[in-house]
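Following up on my earlier message about flavin-adenine dinucleotide. Here are the inputs again, as you asked, copied directly from the submission form:
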Amino acid sequence: MSTAPPHVLIIGAGTGGLCLAHGLRRAGITVAVYERHRDRAEGLLGYRVGIGPTGSRALRDCLPPELFATFLATCARPPHYFNVVTEGLRQTASFELRPTTDPVRTEHSVARMAMCQVLLTGLDDVVHFDKTFTRYAQRDDGTVTAHFADGTSATGDLLVAADGTHSAVRRQYLPHAVTKDAGTINIATRIPLTAHTRDLVPERIRQGISLIFGVGGVMGVLHVLEFNWDAGRAIKPGVSDAAAALLRDWPGLAHDTSTDNINLIIWSAARRFPADIMRRRGEDLLRVALGLTSNWHPNLRELLARADPASALPIKVSTSEPVPPWKSSTVTLLGDAIHTMTPGRGVGANTALRDARLLCEQVTRATTGDKTLLQAVADYEAAMAPYGFARVADSLNRSGTSGEDRMYRPVVGRLALLGARGYFGVTSRVPRLRRRFVDDFHTYEGDQD
Ligand SMILES: Cc1cc2nc3c(=O)[nH]c(=O)nc-3n(C[C@H](O)[C@H](O)[C@H](O)COP(=O)(O)OP(=O)(O)OC[C@H]3O[C@@H](n4cnc5c(N)ncnc54)[C@H](O)[C@@H]3O)c2cc1C
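Thanks, got it. Here's what our run produced:
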């Protein structure tokens, strides 16, 4: 059995693709990553991503140890509470989360931009920007060639689609795979954290993650992100010497524009938004957000009014349908490219990272003579598809991320809202239920299948 290490082509320098690139490089396998964005800053948004144990384990195993430590130093202050509040900022439930020093078995608050800058670190020689993948060709000699919009091409032994929800690789490889609109739209905003905006947020909300269940079918989530550096990129007092040293040596800090902010995302059924919502930006989009939240507490509305217009972004929420098993080959897929899910359980990035770790392990085994590359791909896909689509299903039924949710129906919606608030209220007051909820929050890894 040939043990010559394969050359792996990865389409997409996002969460999963970059994690995979690090893991393969550490295993001595050559990789090349092709990204459509023109440079390392384009397309990176400041919204918060929660990285739980599944994602952290993958990052720990794939990244060089010092880079994993840098990742930890770039995380925002961890949340102390999970809160459920009404549109009037009345607390329905508040769960105290368990403090831990374990870098893996916890929930990290990360700015998507900071995480991508960490993942790009050390990969300058393998990431190629301004390369939009258009199609591939599988050759008789077992290689695969990727073609790009600029007329260039690249050939390798394995092509990995890590190109996200609208994957061009998936469209060619699995044209029957269905990715569809979940029927909800988000407006994501960032509000600079100042003395004034900080005072608008009650202490328990400032220290936690807060889900807003609004009467009238508009939902929200609010996180205060406070980093280890200030707006001038100086390390804040109180940061440990080790973390400060890592950050000072980290070239990514010069590229990362994340600063302390309040992430406020609102969402509702798509029919509640103007038809041209996906084309709106800036103040125009913030006006839509303010229009939908007219019954919200004045402090929340003041936050929306103070959001950075450049940060306002409409997001059409997508989901996918399970794909029946396919014949494995020299093309495979990971993350949103195969199992796009709604943000309902907050595990899309975690699952993309899990895929990257698993694929890396399998491809590495192919280089030790343990199995062929095709068998490694087949074993990866046989494990990935069931857990990936299980997470798609878990996510769709959570937090009103499906437009079909009863919450959005005219009369039933009010009852569904009261039911959801009642569930959180009771769960937070009954010690046994409360413990189970907090356990689940800390340990939901999607790894038990
Ligand atoms: C508002 C919001 C909040 C979220 N919160 C969470 C959370 O708390 N926890 C969590 O786990 N997940 C969360 N997610 C989901 C998470 O962001 C995604 O699931 C995750 O980024 C998917 O990673 P990926 O590597 O599959 O794709 P991506 O990170 O999307 O990367 C795909 C890359 O491919 C590139 N690309 C696309 N097409 C081409 C092409 N033709 N040629 C070359 N390159 C191409 C793109 O530019 C991009 O860089 C959230 C998502 C949203 C929208």
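One observation from looking it over: The pocket of flavin-adenine dinucleotide is lined by residues 11-17, 34-37, 43, 47, 49-50, 132-133, 162-164, 168, 186, 188, 265, 315, 335-337, 343, 346-350, 352 (CB under 6 Å). Hope that helps, and feel free to reply on this thread.
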